[in-house]
Amino acid sequence: MSRLSDILVVGGGAIGGAIAWSLIKRGLTVTLVEAGRIGRGASWAAAGVLAPDWSGHDPEALTVMAEAGLAAWPDWVAELEDRTGLGLSFRRDGLLNVWVDPDAPHLPHDLATEPLPAAAGQRLSAAEARALEPALTGPILGGALAPADAQVDNPRLAPALIRAAADQGLRVLVDTPVTALLGSGGVCRGVRTASGTEIAAGAVVLAAGAWSGPLAASSGIHLPVIPWRGQMLAFDTPARPFRHIVFCGELVLIPRPHGPLLVGTTLENVGFDSRVTLAGLHQILARAERIVPGLGDLPLARTWAGLRPGTPDNLPYLGPIPGWDGLYVAAGHGRKGIILAPITGELMARVILDHDLDPMLEPCLPQRVVD
Description:
- The protein has eight helices and 19 strands.
- It is α+β, with helices and mostly antiparallel strands.
- The protein has two domains: 3-85 and 154-224 and 313-368, 3-Layer(bba) Sandwich (FAD/NAD(P)-binding domain), CATH 3.50.50; 95-147 and 227-310, 2-Layer Sandwich (D-Amino Acid Oxidase, Chain A, domain 2).
- The strands form three sheets. Strands 4, 5, 6, 12, 13, 14, 15, 16 and 17 form a nine-stranded mixed beta sheet that branches. Strands 1, 2, 8, 9, 10, 11, 18 and 19 form an eight-stranded mixed beta sheet that branches.
- Helix 1 (14-25) runs parallel beside helix 8 (337-354), helix 3 (60-84) crosses helix 5 (157-166) and helix 3 crosses helix 8.
- The longest helix has 25 residues, at 60-84.
- The two termini are 29 Å apart.
- 50% of the residues are buried.
- The mean pLDDT is 95.
């Protein structure tokens, strides 16, 4: 089994693509192996919102990293668009996070009823929130505006990253599920695919989203990754109904600049079932109708679902896997995979190439769960 490249990345989503591009730019030879099509997992199904901590309840370490990710996005996406010619529609629309009257009738349980922390943004009264977004005619009590938060056309992100890296020498294998890690004596030497093919590399990075956990388990590595199903739908709108991204608890409303209104989302622990359900869509629509009455009368454009890779402590796994030389992981980003893509690519490349462990990575090291 001859060595194919310096690094083998398992996973062709936004995280795997960002890592591959960062490594390629540093002069390493890289092979990326994707079980299906490029960027058709969580990266495709996500909402594309770039907000460091819209809920106010994220771990501090995650918020710090997400803030660094958002700061990196403008230059990072400009370089990516320049190299590929693909427009990713990065826009700083700002995020308006609202909460509702807890005593209002017929209120879905997962709408926000408590004011957000002061750090969530500029505090607004109900009247001020409605002045910004007149369509919010439901029982709004107040809001917080984060003007620097942004959105991006996330389905284009992973393909753009792979194109940029491929133009610089990345080898890409699609429709190639990885079933096992190869190695002995605590040294990872490559992977085995479902067809039995063995692919050697100097080091391996697990960046397969929710499937990273089962792949690690196949080699006896305890790396719990929870596949959280998130369902969404899109409405056709004659005009852009909102100026800002709007959140209220689990309700998200994302007005695409030249397209539909995206509405979501659910958070369901149903294993690896990524199917859309009527129950999930009803839950989303019930929230949306309570905040924006009449929204359900718009034409339905499409529905979809994806599996977010979560972890028990809501922090991703980033860095070397203890007990294995040459094996790294970048998985478990939950709802923050898109905003964290540029900073994850940079920090992981530094760890792999220079053994440079940034302080931001320390709370995310997999040694906190790996035996």
